[in-house]
Amino acid sequence: MSLSASDLQDLQNTLSDRLYLQISGWHLYLGDADLAASLAIECSARVNQGAELAARQSVDAVKVSVAGGASQLPLSRLLPPAQLRDLEEILEPYCR
Length: 96
Fold this sequence. Notes:
The chain has 96 residues and is an alpha+beta fold. The chain contains four helices and four strands.
């Protein structure tokens, strides 16, 4: 199951404004980092697994380029634990 185009856009907009990477005390929102669309697509593909599993697998699947593309880290390594819980909460209505 995946989300409709409208739901996918709504999810992307929500992720853009609510979730952030945390690096050395700095918060970089996913919309500013151009990562919200990638995360929304990954979450959409997994909503049938439930919010908790979809959130965890999706943040592991999204890769973030660092050092000018010389390396990539999974998004899960850059999100604070509270942000993962927020993602689960955001996904809950889409998983019903």
